[in-house]
Backbone:
């Protein structure tokens, strides 16, 4: 019996050792992946008269709010890995700050750039980047304005900022930008954007410069406020895109419809989110009047600032806000559903 117990104990110890070995391999792989990304960048020690420190300030999800008060949730609303910060300094000159946001996917790095399309599009490569698929979003991967250069490069989102813009600091900022993007991949924009149409009918035009790609309700509320609650059940597993469609009437008035599309992990997840949205955002509207929120057809409700409508297709929910009439909402939903069907068919091939 003693020998049998000894064998059992040895087997348990071996299993535990194997488990620890697997954990260590996973951690080493993740660390190596992060190091590989950093090695590819190779920031110079000096640029112009500015010099960087020997090591970066490492920011992760645990200390991000110590680094940026009140803005950390915007980055944690995406698949955030870590942030490396370098401050280039020079005598008798203001600093240049380099922030390298390492995201877990290229889509998430794009999402951070999409939060603000302001600035002048600039090219940091010798040859322009050709998009591998048509897209309605701005094609710029680098934007510059007032001393700040923002970049989307594969899974990396970058901010290079000169605290005082001068011709010399601008050249240094651009030099750093060119170094950062050198030899990095250029994946296409998120596939979810393919569902958007640049026009709806003959009158409604998509505002490309206000396309936002996101996952979190906190990010959504930063540019289109719905509720302090997460009424659409958005989380890191969801994908969403929003943008306004605009038209100018014959008398010169500008009208706008805010469009929102959310992709969930499965139809049940989408249905639960839709029920929660209706019950919270439209508590006085009887969803059974038009067949219930579970019916996969458009529903419209008149509120103070126009019509609100939603349409569920499988694991997707499309919504319109501030819509002038139901006919416009139906036209938008029909076009989006057509694009969605084509996208799903392409994935199935």
Residues:
């Amino acid at each position: 019996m003693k020998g049998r117990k000894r064998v059992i104990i040895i087997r348990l110890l071996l299993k535990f050792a194997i488990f620890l070995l697997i954990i260590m391999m996973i951690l080493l792989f993740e660390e190596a992946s992060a190091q590989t990304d950093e090695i590819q960048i190779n920031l110079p020690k000096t640029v112009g008269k500015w010099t960087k420190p020997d090591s970066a300030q490492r920011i992760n999800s645990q200390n991000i709010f110590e680094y940026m008060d009140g803005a950390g949730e915007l980055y944690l609303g995406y698949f955030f890995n870590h942030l490396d910060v370098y401050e280039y300094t020079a005598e008798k000159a203001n600093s240049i700050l380099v922030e390298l946001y390492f995201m877990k996917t290229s889509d998430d790095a794009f999402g951070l750039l999409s939060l603000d399309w302001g600035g002048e599009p600039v090219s940091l490569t010798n040859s322009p980047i050709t998009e591998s698929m048509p897209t309605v979003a701005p094609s710029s991967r680098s934007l510059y304005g007032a001393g700040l250069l923002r970049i989307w490069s594969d899974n990396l989102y970058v901010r290079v900022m000169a605290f005082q813009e001068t011709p010399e600091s601008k050249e240094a900022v651009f030099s750093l930008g060119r170094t950062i993007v050198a030899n990095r991949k250029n994946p296409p924009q998120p596939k979810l954007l393919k569902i958007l149409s640049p026009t709806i009918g003959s009158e409604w035009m998509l505002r490309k410069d206000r396309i936002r790609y996101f996952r979190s309700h906190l990010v959504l509320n930063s540019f289109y406020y719905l509720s302090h609650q997460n009424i659409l059940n958005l989380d890191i597993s969801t994908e969403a895109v929003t943008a306004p469609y605009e038209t100018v009437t014959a008398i010169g008035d500008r009208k706008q419809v805010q469009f929102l599309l959310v992709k969930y992990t499965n139809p049940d997840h989408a249905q639960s989110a839709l029920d929660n949205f209706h019950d919270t955002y439209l508590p006085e509207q009887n969803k059974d009047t038009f067949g219930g929120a579970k019916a996969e057809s458009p529903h419209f409700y008149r509120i103070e600032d126009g019509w609100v409508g939603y349409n569920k297709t499988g694991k997707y929910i499309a919504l319109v806000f501030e819509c002038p009439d139901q006919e416009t909402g139906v036209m938008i939903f029909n076009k989006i559903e057509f694009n969605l069907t084509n996208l799903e068919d392409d994935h199935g091939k």
Notes: The two ends are 61 Å apart (CA to CA). The mean pLDDT is 86.
